Amino acid sequence: MTKQMRDESLIGEQEALAAAACLFHGFSDTSRLTIVQHLSLGEHRVVDLVAHLGLAQSTVSRHLACLLDCGLVTMRPEGRASIYALAHPEATMDLLRGAERLLGLTGDAVTLCPRHGAGVAQ
């Protein structure tokens, strides 16, 4: 393998890791995870999500925009409303089930992490 091929391979790996980090950022907020879990039940309007989740409309809209930008949800207009759905429901639920398995294996280690755990100010 030439140096150029190794360099190109390394750049490709770095780009893939950057994309993965962006994907996980989409899931890095409890409100976004709550929205994703609720959308796993089917399509919803913003007003429905606000009512079901007890979050402010601005909060729901901001998190939906993030999820939309990440390609995790889709939006289609219906009259004056926007209808949101998971873009890839099966893959999203597979990822969340995998996360649950990993959390089960790590026990309290993740939430007790001194850098990113539940007690750390964000």
UniProtKB/TrEMBL annotation:
Signal peptide annotation: none
CDD domains: HTH_ARSR
GO molecular-function terms, A-Z: DNA binding; DNA-binding transcription factor activity
Transmembrane portions of the chain: none
Keyword Transmembrane helix among record annotations: no
Pfam families per record: HTH_5
Keyword Transcription regulation: yes
Organism superkingdom: Bacteria
Key words of the record: DNA-binding, Transcription, Transcription regulation
Domain HTH arsR-type: 12-106
Official protein name in the record: Transcriptional regulator, ArsR family
